[in-house]
Amino acid sequence: MNTDFHLKRVFIIDDDPTFNRILQRAMSNRGIATAGAQTAEGLAQTLHTFKPDAVILDLNLNGHSGLELIDTIRKAVPGARILVLTGYASITTAVEAIKRGAYQYLAKPTDVDSILRSLESPSDETAGGELEAKPMSVGRLEWEHIQRVLAEHNGNISATARALKMHRRTLQRKLAKRPVKT
């Protein structure tokens, strides 16, 4: 673990008020000062006044992409480490998050210790230890492909459905389901 970096202040942006509150409490119990928000409104000003070492950012904020906030966070607190946290992890969104400037990317459910390890470890280390060598299931490959095509079409469901030669409602049903783990 990197001893040069120690978390003192963490800002949490998650639209689930219960999860946000629990995560803030768990961090506070570990001696870390926290602040949180459930929306992006006023984010830049809050970050300027709170000045966190790290920001935990939910990927899906009330139907909007949390990835769009990475640039705002980077400008407000350039040295802060950004951890993107999501219940709908995909390779496409992980790559996009890192390209935009996120430090780490974690899938929910996860625990506070894993989050802290991710934020405090060098970015080229994996927070959860060794990656599994098992190949992805067909369902997971389908999910990844849909996410890649969706990203190529800037989140436009209709354009993505046309590109996949799939009915729009079918695509919406597939997107509403949680991705297959393996």
How does this model look, in words?
This protein is an alpha/beta fold. It is 43% helix and 16% strand. 29% of the residues are buried.
- Principal-axis shape equals elongated
Low-pLDDT segments: 125-133
Global structural class: alpha/beta
- Largest sheet geometry: 5 strands, parallel
Q: How do the strands line up in the largest sheet?
A: 2-1-3-6-7
Determine the number of helices (DSSP H or I, runs of at least 4 residues).
Answer: 8
Helix percentage:
40-55%
Write down the overall mean pLDDT: 81
> Rg from C-alpha positions?
17 Å
Q: Could you give the order of the helices and strands?
A: EHEHEEEHEHEHHHH
What proportion of the residues form beta strands (DSSP E)? Answer: 15-25%
Number of DSSP strands?
7
Per-chain topology:
Elements: E1 9-13, H1 17-29, E2 33-37, H2 43-50, E3 54-58, E4 60-61, E5 64-65, H3 70-76, E6 81-86, H4 91-100, E7 104-107, H5 112-120, H6 138-152, H7 157-164, H8 168-176
Parallel strand pairs: 1-2, 1-3, 3-6, 6-7
Antiparallel strand pairs: 4-5
Helix pairs in contact: 2-3, 6-7, 7-8
